[in-house]
Amino acid sequence: MIYRRSSALFAEAQRYIPGGVNSPVRAFKAVGGNPVFVKEAKGAYLYDEDGNRLIDYIASWGPLILGHAYAPVIEAVIEKAKKGTSFGMPTEIETRLARLAVSMVPNIDKIRFVNSGTEACMSAVRLARGFTGRDKIIKFAGCYHGHSDSFLIQAGSGAVTFGSPNSPGVTQGTAKDTLLATYNNLESVKALAAANKGEIAAIIIEPVAGNMGCIIPEENFIKGLRELCDQENILLIFDEVMTGFRLAKGGAQEVLGINADIVTFGKVIGGGLPVGAFAAREEIMGHLAPDGPVYQAGTLSGNPLAMSAGLAMLTELNNRPEIFRSLADKTQYLGQGMAKVLTDNHIPFQMNRFGSMISIHFTEEPVVDFESSAKGNNAVFKKYFHGMLDQGIYLPPSAFESYFLNDALSYDDLDETIAALSNIAKDLH
Ligand code: KE4
């Protein structure tokens, strides 16, 4: 495929935007080459600036679960825009989306809308700290909760010491309140809780992880976290920015059958427009301004255009819950087809799949946490990514991402994807 115009646009973008992108993963640094500039999209297909049609397995990193330019969402946004775009005043549509979200998600009484997943997770942690009066949080190596300072932390020196910044600009003062545990390793969490007794406000986790590739919680891991939080009066925060309204109506809480204390959302809840949210039972949300002392605010929070997109999206998912099963079936079909090609070609790989989230790791070892995910062969991944892109298959440009299937993908698209892998498999060594 030719990417001449994308390359020219990338050169121009780099003159005015750091790295030529407004979010680093889009720059193809992990896979090399220049990023593809998209011109428009419809259903399961992206149409780039060079006229290439690409089958999309990112769906804008999750939001477009019904496919691009889904008519009810587009119509809702157009109609709403004709009546004004933002008021900085309460509007009825915010209540309609809040009421629908509360009806779909178990164990929440109230929800606050913000403008991104980062804002949702950042605010959820502040609320947990305000509610408990404690300062520290536990997160997991490899889990991503957005770019708020408290989350840009890597493992500290010892197993039970605090973390250290993994980005310049994050202070040691911030890092000391973030403790790093290992995903799927309950003992690592218990050790931190014991070493910081009475000081931990919350444990925040991706209940099904998507930012190490897809990592599935092992039996009783999440249940163990719930029990530990109950014993130690720690709040359990499910970061459902990816899993919310994707795994099921009620997200990971419903599928895993475990209640969090605070749940965060993003992506799907905004239908492709900027919406994040955090939600909890009244006892906790009652601490949030203006009812309570924990401050949080936003000029465009609850923006009517974003609310109209989110309401159209969630209404569709609420009325057609069979979509979640259909998406999981398509993901299983894709995974099985690709696994057969890789096995027949004797390529070492692991495939993790949960609902409509899936990832392939070129390693012999099972991928159960960040350390095992990092053992994937990135040289092979790069060949895989570009080999598929050259055949019109657009996959996440990083081995530490999950694929997000959308409902507009047909089984013919899945077969075309499997065939594309078959065409390049012999080179994946
Ligand atoms: P945003 O601030 O990007 O809306 O959400 C942050 C976030 C929070 N929690 C989870 C579980 C997430 O996956 C994300 C964002 N996901 C990435 C993809 N892995 C967004 C892509 C990007 O950074 O451009």
Describe this structure in words.
The chain is α/β, with parallel strands linked by helices and 429 residues long. It has a domain of 249 residues: 3-Layer(aba) Sandwich (Aspartate Aminotransferase, domain 2), CATH 3.40.640.10. 37% of the residues lie in helices and 15% in strands. The strands form 4 sheets. It has a 7-stranded mixed beta sheet, with helices on both faces. A 4-stranded mixed beta sheet has the order 1-2-3-15. The longest helix is centred in the last third of the chain and has 23 residues. The chain is globular, with a radius of gyration of 21 Å. The relative contact order is 0.16. The model has no long low-confidence stretch (mean pLDDT 96). Bound molecules: ligand KE4. Ligand KE4 binds next to helix 4.
What is the correct CATH architecture of one domain? 3-Layer(aba) Sandwich
Please give the alpha-carbon distance between the first and last residues: 23 Å
Residue share in helices? 25-40%
Small molecules in complex = ligand KE4
Estimated radius of gyration: 21 Å
How many strands in all? 16
Nearest-integer average pLDDT: 96
Strand-residue fraction?
A: 15-25%
Question: What structural class do helix, strand and pairing data support?
Answer: alpha/beta
- Tally of DSSP helical segments: 14
Secondary-structure element pattern, one letter each: HEEEHHEHEEEHEHEHEHEEHHHEEHHEEH
Main sheet, how many strands, which sense, barrel?
7 strands, mixed
The CATH topology of one domain: Aspartate Aminotransferase, domain 2
Shape: globular
**CATH superfamily assignment of one domain?**
Type I PLP-dependent aspartate aminotransferase-like (Major domain)
- Low-confidence blocks of residues: none
- CATH class type of one domain: Alpha Beta
Strand order of the largest sheet: 4-12-11-10-9-5-8
